[in-house]
Design goal:
InterPro entries: DH_E1, THDP-binding, Transketo_C/PFOR_II, Transketolase-like_Pyr-bd, Transketolase_C
Distance between the termini: 78 Å
Low-confidence stretches: none
Pfam family, one: Transketolase_C
Radius of gyration: 30 Å
Function: E1 component of the 2-oxoglutarate dehydrogenase (OGDH) complex which catalyzes the decarboxylation of 2-oxoglutarate, the first step in the conversion of 2-oxoglutarate to succinyl-CoA and CO(2).
Number of strands: 24
Mean pLDDT: 95
Organism: Chryseobacterium sediminis
Number of helices: 26
Strand order of the largest sheet: 13-12-14-15-17-16-22
Shape: globular
Structural class: alpha/beta
Cofactor: thiamine diphosphate
Largest sheet: 7 strands, mixed
Length: 810
């Protein structure tokens, strides 16, 4: 086990002096970056700025106890910390401000995130994992306040898991579970539910986690007293303080942001508790100042009075640090030793300004060079078209008058030139067109790549293995198929674990995990509290550290509690790091056709629209669901798998190759062939659609039934269009609201697959009513599409075209 900061601080005075001066130097550089960054925004060279000035000292102290293998999930003001652990340079700080799309110059996000959002790269270029124990790790920041907290729980819990779980390659992710997850959050954001849910779960689970609260007394302009029940968050958290002899709760440490020795002591203690005892710790850093206010969007003079502003100037952390250094002296062997003189510190101040300015200048020149090279390669080609249309010269003149030119201005010029010269077939225009296609492909990669995996482990690359059946294959309840498949999964993949409400002891509410906890232990098959947001967060954090978690959300309706984390964090992590990080979490849930407003909703359209970046898999039975789990555990992308609630007690033939067979993503299945109309559906509705198709056969209508299986990705081979080409009619059926998921499906089929060319009738959608389904079987019948609804509405399509053959029903 690694020693802690407390146990390693036996150093000479010279080393002590050097550490102090290096901290002061780094703090001053960070401050100058903040000052200069604000100026870059106000002069128009950067779009927005949010900085960490005032928080330099506590972040320097936190960095001293941050070891290789540790993780941070933090707040967008931690630039000093990022500098201190070598995860940020002055150049990369400003490259992010300018939205430089170079991964080399801006490795955190390649220009995709606004400044202050930090990340280290966990992946090699091919998408494989780096050795995370050999580097200090920052999980990619997000802006939504407290949104970083649920993920923090999983990052910390992974250390607990790794104390017991080993698998091939696990040494890349943990050294005996000795790592700490560090979280940072602004004081006002502790009013958010995610903060309380995360801390509550951490105290129950007893995970090695240190949460730093930067308390500057305000949430933008709103004072702390208006944010919470108590102005002092430490007082509010006093009930969380662990008691001696109890394995619950956390340690709470309060410390002033300007007291350098106290900060070192506070973080040394925090590390000791977390690393040696696996106890969560809250470090409440008070008296934090914010010299430039909240951000470049406004001035804090608008809401802070003169007394507060004067106090902030007096208790500025770096000013107090300088004062402490100058007042420090110690007698060693009869000689009085000091750390530095006023002149020496002022020299450091000047050096810091030069370093910040030099880094900013280099970052700006690199960014401008990339733009200039683009202009040089394109502008002559545009100019060559001046003789073909007079408007081209006008657009060039407008372009040349721009004081500052960005890539968007270049592309606007090219597209205008191509627009006004349309219909012209010349060598010059063809050359411009060729160049435009080249640079457009580069910018598509710069701005739109890596929403989904681009590695060899991309889910679409997983080979299909069909279920194998024999004469001895049994007909069993669907829950038995999924249960026995999970058994094979947990045996085959020791890095796989599952957790959720009622998941462990009773084997989930539908007995799909019956006996699994007894067989594989409570660490891997775990019950959680009722806290969906942090169940998701556990999964995200653990997946970021190489485990293969399955986060169970008991019902599809309850996914709404997770939607913020799914949308803002999980769905974007691979994109917002341009392939630098991944979190291949599987979300397990169940839904559709159970009776009652809050157990039978279908928020599929919300999931589809808000969670692009996560695969959405909708199997029609439990065998298909099992196959999807087998597929996704070989892939490196996040997915949500929606099991059919009404399928657990229905009989299915159990495959002989449990744990091995796979269901391909993005591939539909024609489950009933027909020639008159194509019926497209998914999930639980498939059974009812099949019943309706059989009823239609009796009425002389041959219906082809297609199970989509995978909403994202959707029908990669465009097989649905081929079906419509044969039948010339299309009906999309589900139990979402009108215009919800059916709207998405129609867009995919009609627009992307161009199936409108084959239609002889208007496409039809059959969905549920817009209200939630009412209770009981009658409620289901009158709220969601029934077999009767489907038969009548599809029959009406044929009545419209041939009323003699298909006389009206009503």
């Amino acid at each position: 086990m690694q020693t802690t900061y407390i146990e390693t601080q036996q150093i000479s005075f010279q080393d002590f002096k050097n550490q102090i001066l290096e901290d002061y130097r780094l703090g001053r550089i960070s401050r100058e970056m903040s000052y200069l960054g604000r100026r870059e925004v106000l002069t128009g060279k950067a779009k927005f700025g949010i900085f960490g000035d005032g928080k330099e000292l506590p972040q320097l102290a936190m960095a001293k106890v941050f070891r290789n293998g540790d993780f941070r999930s933090g707040y967008y003001r931690d630039q000093t910390f990022a500098l201190a652990i070598d995860a940020l340079t002055v150049e990369s700080f400003f490259a992010q401000m300018y939205a430089d799309t170079s991964v080399e110059r801006e490795p955190a996000s390649a220009g995709r995130q606004m400044n202050g959002h930090f990340a280290t790269r966990s992946l090699n270029e091919d998408g494989s994992w780096k050795d995370l124990t050999a580097q200090k790790n920052i999980s990619s920041d997000i802006s939504p306040t407290a949104g970083q907290m649920p993920r923090l729980l999983g990052l910390a819990q992974a250390s607990t898991i790794y104390k017991s779980v080993k698998f091939e390659g696990s040494e890349k992710f943990s050294r005996e579970g000795n790592e700490i997850a560090f979280g940072t959050i602004g004081d006002a954001s502790t009013a958010e539910g995610h903060f309380w849910e995360t801390l509550n779960a951490a105290c129950a689970l007893q995970v090695p986690m240190i949460v730093s609260i930067w308390d500057d007394g305000y949430g933008i302009s709103v004072p702390t007293k208006n944010q919470r029940a108590k102005a002092d968050i430490s007082e509010m958290l006093s009930g969380f303080q662990r008691k001696e002899g109890e394995n619950q709760g956390c340690e709470i440490i309060q410390v002033k942001a300007w007291d350098y020795p106290a900060l070192l002591d506070a973080y040394a203690k925090a590390e000791h508790f977390a690393r040696t005892e696996s106890v969560p710790v809250v470090v409440h850093v008070i008296d934090v100042t914010q010299p430039q206010g909240h951000s470049t969007s406004g001035s804090h003079e608008r809401y802070k009075n003169e007394e507060r502003l004067a106090w902030e100037a007096e208790f500025d952390g770096l000013a107090k640090f300088k004062e402490w250094i100058l007042n420090y002296s110690i007698e060693i062997d009869g000689n009085e030793e000091v750390i530095a003189t006023t002149e020496e510190l002022e020299a450091i101040d000047e050096e810091a300004k030069k370093i910040a300015k030099a880094g900013q200048k280099t970052a700006w020149e690199n960014y401008q060079k990339a733009v200039s090279e683009l202009i040089q390669s394109i502008l002559p080609l545009v100019e060559s078209l001046k003789g073909q249309n007079a408007e081209v010269e006008t657009y060039i003149s407008q372009f040349n008058k721009l004081v500052s030119k960005a890539k968007k201005d270049i592309f606007h010029l090219v597209r205008k030139a191509l627009l006004v010269t349309r219909g012209t077939n010349s060598a010059e225009r063809n050359q411009l067109m060729q160049k435009y296609n080249e640079v457009a492909a580069v910018e598509k990669d710069n701005y739109s790549s890596h929403l989904y995996s681009q590695s060899e482990w991309k889910s679409e690359n997983i080979q299909e293995i069909k279920p194998v059946y024999s004469d001895s294959s049994e007909d069993v309840d669907g829950r038995v198929v999924i249960r026995n498949n999970f058994d094979k999964i947990f045996e085959k993949y020791p890095e796989t674990l599952i957790f959720g409400e009622d998941t462990g002891n009773i084997g989930d509410v539908n007995q799909g995990l019956e006996g699994m906890q007894e067989k594989y232990g409570a660490l891997r098959i775990a019950d959680t509290g009722i806290r969906e947001a942090t169940i998701l967060g556990q999964g995200i954090g653990m997946a970021m550290r190489g485990l293969r978690p399955i986060a169970e959300i008991q019902y599809l309706d309850y996914v709404l509690y997770c939607l913020q984390g799914m949308s803002d964090d999980l769905a974007t992590v691979h994109y917002r790091t341009k392939g630098g990080q991944k979190a291949p979490l599987i979300i397990r849930t169940r839904g559709h056709r159970l009776e009652g407003i809050w157990h039978s909703g279908s928020p599929m359209a919300g999931i589809l629209n808000l969670s692009k970046g996560i695969l959405v898999l909708v199997p029609r039975n439990l065998t298909k669901a099992a196959g999807f789990y087998n597929t996704m555990l070989q892939a490196d992308e996040p997915a949500i798998i929606v099991e059919c609630l009404n399928g657990y007690r229905l009989k299915e033939k159990q495959p002989d190759n449990l744990g091995e067979f796979t269901v391909p993503v993005g591939k539909i299945e024609v489950t009933k062939e027909g020639k008159d109309v194509t019926l497209v559906t998914y999930g639980s509705t498939w059974r009812i659609v099949t019943e309706a198709a059989n009823e239609l056969e009796k009425l002389g209508i041959s219906a082809e039934v297609i199970d989509i299986q995978s909403l994202i990705p959707f029908d990669l081979s465009h097989e649905i269009a081929e079906s419509v080409k044969k039948t010339n009619r299309l009906v999309v059926i589900d139990e979402d609201v009108e215009g919800g998921t059916t709207g998405f499906i129609l867009q995919q089929i009609l627009e992307k697959q161009k199936a409108f060319r084959y239609l002889d009738s208007d496409p039809l959608t059959i969905s549920a009513n817009d209200h939630r389904p009412a209770y009981a079987s009658d409620g289901d019948y009158f709220s969601k599409p029934s077999t009767d609804d489907m038969v009548e509405k599809i029959y009406a399509m044929f009545n419209e075209t041939n009323p003699q053959k298909y006389p009206a029903i009503f």
